[in-house]
Amino acid sequence: MKIAFVMLAAGNSRRFGSNKLLYEIEGKPMYLLTLEKLKKASEKIPESEIIVVTQYEEIVKKAGEMKIPVFINPRPEDGISLSMQIGLMSVRDTDACLFTVSDQPWLEADTVVALTELFENEKKGMACIRWNGKTGNPCIFGQKYYEELMEISGDKGGKKIIKKHPEDGANMALKLPKCNSTKKLVHYAYNICLYHHERYDGHGYPKGLKSDDIPLEAQVVGLADAYDALISERPYKRKTNHGEAVRMIVNGECGSFSAKVILSFIIASMNKTWIEKVSK
Prior knowledge:
The chain is an alpha/beta fold. The protein has helices spanning 30-42, 57-65, 80-89, 109-122, 146-149, 159-164, 183-195, 216-231, 242-250, 259-269, 272-278; strands at 3-9, 24-25, 28-29, 48-54, 70-72, 96-101, 126-131, 134-142, 169-173.
């Protein structure tokens, strides 16, 4: 079976306040950790190839050093579906295509290999990772779905196809690094990476979760991330002072958060040491 691994790395990271794909974890940019795992998996799978779709020069340069083909998304604001289609157009002669986002630093190469084997053995048209009862990345689509993938639009990715053909999908539980001392930490970290852009009213992404379907740790980091973006100076904006940032978040100007998370934030925001630190 000929399969392509397409890493999608063109997102604008609007709520993160900067390019989250360049955020370092264990001394490496987040996207690079994902890319290295894909490369390791590809080395174990005959007739596999990797391509990257991005808008960022640093990712273009690094992928080039790794001899991995790169395709530019000129309109990332059109959503993840355009990145998927740009990648798919370059590998349409393959039997299957695996798509993954690039902010999955704890994705394991063995997980990619196992998912590929599941797809090939189950003879289904799709195969996806399943975590806590929810389908997510990476996801493999067989060639018979390429035309449908080329017709999707916006920021939903292949979710529309998965929902349309539930009987034709194979699912595999996500495999996380095995270490008893960090098991809970890894679980929390995964939830934070995947869900910190979700919002309490369901208007976040990538899955549009709402209310307490969003893990609490992701809710907390999502609010902290919004606060940090406000009080940080960026090339395109001045930093907001502490009091104004608190007001904006409490008033819902940065998305919807649960009442208990907002209340905890208000109490914490009155800490004198914290105020002094962010006011410098």
